Prior knowledge:
The protein is α/β, with parallel strands linked by helices. It is built from 18 helices and 25 strands. Bound molecules: adenosine monophosphate (AMP).
Amino acid sequence: MANQAAERPRDMQVDGLVPHPAATAAGYRAAGFWSGRSLPTELVAAAAAHADRTALITPEGSSTYRELFDAARNFATGLLESTGLRPGDAVMFQMGNVTETVVSYLGCLLAGTKPVCTLPQHGVREVGVLARHIGARGLVLQSDFGRGLLPDNARSLLAEGTVEFAVVARGEAFEGAVAYEDLLAAGAAAGSAELPYHQDESDQIAVFQLSGGTTGLPKVAPRLHEEYAYNARAWAAALGWGPGTVALYALPIMHNAGISVALQPALLSGATLALAPSADIGTLLDLIATTRPSVIPLVPPALAIRLLEAPASKTADFSSVKDFIVGGQKLAEEVAHRLRDELGIAVRQKFGMAEGMFLVTPAQAGEAVRHHTVGTPLSPADEVRILTPGGDAEVPDGEIGELCVRGPYTIRGYYRAARHNASAFTDDGFYRTGDLARRHTIDGLTCYSIDGRIKDVINRGVEKIHAEEVEELIMRHHDVSNAALVAMPDEVLGERGCAYLVMEARARPLTVESLGVFLLAQGLAKYKLPERVEVLPGLPLSNIGKVSKKTLREDIEGKLAREAGSRATPGSTST
Length: 575
Ligand code: AMP
């Protein structure tokens, strides 16, 4: 069977994949973590078991498991019949939080194609770079997302030959693209042909998740069928999900967190996913009132603060919410206390990443664990080491080191990125997360706190901005001779990007606006634009001659503190 996969002409599945060692994989299967079945096979089995239950609710309507998977089957059949895509092909996504996204994602899996979890906020250049890196042939886009620019972006991608086929949801088709409704109709007309979601490829790539930026060599996390399904099953099990659970999710559903803490655990456990089109507080409170969620599986601290500040929250009824899980960024103790005291919410925390590894605080743990740590790993087979940053020596418990992880749903290598893989993993396959963490024992429980990071990333809300990507694009401006992007603390989003620029002689300094216009024209997503510009005669250097971002972070923190007058400087994380 494995040979059959290797013989396929456009075999994307073995190319660029760093597999788990065979003995490790066999161990995960023997322990029942890995099922030996493909992700869509597991999803189809769950759908059959829960056919008449509600699978999905959006403000526009709801679908049972039967309805959702019938639509997904039609999408899959239509995709293979009308677009020329073949099983094994990768498909880019630019879709928001709408029903069509869930149908298309499931449909791609049922067609044996591999969703690439790009976001609708990504620009043409970003989608293009990733599509070429992966070798994707298709694109699914939401025509009415945001300001309605995605069809134009898709036309560019088609015209330059980056992708060959597009599916347009919620809008008119155009040359090279087929309308989502027509695809479904074509699938329905073709009938119930057997779909090629192979059982024998369970250890191969199911989905491509994103990690790094898009200048230089991209970091794409290949998520394999068995481990991605297990990630979701383990999350559902840790939280006790099943029929009757309603999980409300308001962040981008195609992000790894959306798929791994909401969509897939809900669908694999017979629960209901209530999908908010945005994290707008009014929408969220409406959905809390109408769907009575039992769990909100990921609330970034920034969103929790907005919820606390919204007058409408004071009268909202949160009593259905048994699990309110904060994650994505460090939670300030004050916010945990306010959630408890003002809204009656006992928070739990989670840590997770596109590369795998999740931790969550146990529901029954005391506040010392729930407020100050991200808890314990999801799987009994998860292994955690706290190492000297970039090194291999374990640091003692209670001391800060780099969080390094290995286990049944953590990647063993980025896709087609041997250069990254050489430094991103220890010799024995632990993934170096770039996050700083400590191991604690509290009330007899071994748990972990996240205490900053060493990777050069700005965590804006939960969207990550890779400094190097933005810096490289800024450096294309002929008036700029040097640039550094650093995190500046922000009460609402946690962090925002501040660009330090050195201008060429006699060049006029760039402003946030003029730099933004330039970067958008370079195809950078809007959420990555620097939100403050500081111009210096030269960038400070560390004693090894590298730009000292620490000095720049201290500089901007000082400036913000002075500007805020007597207000205390908000805590900053170490990037
Ligand atoms: P992503 O791959 O986009 O899901 O981002 C994963 C990264 O988000 C992690 O490597 C951390 O840097 C950050 N992160 C996720 N959860 C937490 C958390 N609970 N506390 C602090 N940082 C977090």
